[in-house]
Write a structure and sequence with these properties.
With 89 residues, the protein is of the alpha+beta class. Helices cover 46% and strands 19% of the residues. A four-stranded mixed beta sheet has the order 2-1-3-4, sandwiched between helices. Helix 1 links the parallel strand 1 and strand 2.
Length: 89
C-alpha cells in the first residue's frame, strides 16, 4: 500500500475532498490532524517547504501539495502512476 500522509484540520472542505478522492482510488492514507497542534503544524510547514494551507499531501517521498494539486494530478492522468510508484517503494 502506498505511504500517504495528509495533514488536515477540522471543518476543512478541501481536506474532505482530498480524502474522498484518495478513498475513491482505493488507497489508505495516514491522516495527521493539525487542529490546535502548533508543533505538528510547524512540522508540516517545514516538510511542505513553507506551504501552510490545508491539506498538505505527501505520497511516498513526493510532496503533492494541496487538494487542487491532487485533483490536477488526477485530471492529468498522473495520480495513479504516482500511487503505483509509491506502493513499490
Amino acid at each position: 500500500m502506498a505511504n500517504i500522509d495528509i495533514y488536515t484540520v477540522h471543518y476543512c472542505p478541501y481536506c474532505q475532498d482530498a480524502k474522498e478522492l484518495l478513498s475513491r482510488k482505493g488507497v489508505s492514507y495516514h491522516e495527521i490532524d493539525v487542529t490546535g497542534k502548533r508543533d505538528v503544524r510547524k512540522e508540516m510547514i517545514k516538510r511542505a517547504n513553507g506551504r501552510s494551507t490545508y491539506p498538505q499531501i505527501f505520497i511516498g517521498a513526493t510532496h503533492v501539495g494541496g487538494c487542487d494539486d491532487l485533483y490536477a494530478l488526477d485530471e492529468a492522468g498522473k495520480l495513479d502512476s504516482l500511487l503505483a510508484e509509491a506502493k513499490r517503494s
